[in-house]
């Protein structure tokens, strides 16, 4: 695995400055992105792309999210150090590593077993101590619920009821909802056992959320 060089750290500082210009103001989130070596989530041949503000393919029909998107979702989620967080869609592990800079209590579930194994090994090498699971994230992780925060990193046709029920009162779910082509970022806060408040934000384009409460299972 490559080193994290002075050059890489300078590239992260430049990326953070770019994200700040684009409207990301949460300093804790910006510090997390300045700390996590994004190039180590790329294959060596493609590491030159790591500090550009763009998504990039990682195989299995998935991408590593654009840094702006990671920062935007994380800022909306606003995890505190004591929060228990569930991430739906581990993918490359980059978003998970960013969350771990903000709270040590992160569970992450990946639908694709090939990506799960690859990312499990990568995060272990990087000493990132998330609790990783392989399975249908669209139905959450009931044995480990409730969670203070839930972050979905794939586009969903609806807000899965199972995820809402796994939130603590006072907790929040951040999820992109819409068609398979474009989604609106949403934050749903659980105000009481039966009461939820929804907010809508910018439009994005994510890979589809697969599974029982997503777009089904595709071959």
From TrEMBL:
Transmembrane segments: none annotated. Its main location: cytoplasm. Belongs to the methyltransferase superfamily. L-isoaspartyl/D-aspartyl protein methyltransferase family. This is Protein-L-isoaspartate O-methyltransferase. It is an enzyme of class 2 (transferase). It comes from the Bacteria. The active site is at 65. HAMAP family: PIMT. PROSITE patterns: PCMT. The keyword rRNA-binding does not apply. Pfam families: PCMT. Keywords: Cytoplasm, Methyltransferase, S-adenosyl-L-methionine, Transferase. It catalyses: [protein]-L-isoaspartate + S-adenosyl-L-methionine = [protein]-L-isoaspartate alpha-methyl ester + S-adenosyl-L-homocysteine. Gene3D superfamilies: Vaccinia Virus protein VP39. Coiled coil: none annotated. The lineage of its organism: Bacteria, Pseudomonadati, Bacteroidota, Cytophagia, Cytophagales. SUPFAM superfamilies: S-adenosyl-L-methionine-dependent methyltransferases. Its EC number is 2.1.1.77. Catalyzes the methyl esterification of L-isoaspartyl residues in peptides and proteins that result from spontaneous decomposition of normal L-aspartyl and L-asparaginyl residues. It plays a role in the repair and/or degradation of damaged proteins.
């Amino acid at each position: 695995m490559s080193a994290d060089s002075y050059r890489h750290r300078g590239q992260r500082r430049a990326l953070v400055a770019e994200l700040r210009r684009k409207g990301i103001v949460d300093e804790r989130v910006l510090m997390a992105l300045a700390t996590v070596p994004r190039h180590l989530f790329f294959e060596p041949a493609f590491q030159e792309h790591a500090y550009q503000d763009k998504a990039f393919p990682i195989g299995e029909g998935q991408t590593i999210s654009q840094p702006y998107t990671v920062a935007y979702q994380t800022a909306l989620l606003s995890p505190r150090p004591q929060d228990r967080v569930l991430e739906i869609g581990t993918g490359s592990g980059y978003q998970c590593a960013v969350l771990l800079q903000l709270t040590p209590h992160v569970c992450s579930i990946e639908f694709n077993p090939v990506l799960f194994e690859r990312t499990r090994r990568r995060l272990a090498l990087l000493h990132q101590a998330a609790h990783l699971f392989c399975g249908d994230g669209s139905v959450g992780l009931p044995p480990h619920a409730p969670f203070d925060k839930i972050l979905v990193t794939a586009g969903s046709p609806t807000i899965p009821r199972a995820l809402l029920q796994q939130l603590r009162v006072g907790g929040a779910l951040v999820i992109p909802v819409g068609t398979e082509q474009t989604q609106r970022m949403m934050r749903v806060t659980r105000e009481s056992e039966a009461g939820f408040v929804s907010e809508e934000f910018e439009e994005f384009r994510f890979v589809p959320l697969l599974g029982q409460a997503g777009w089904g299972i595709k071959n």
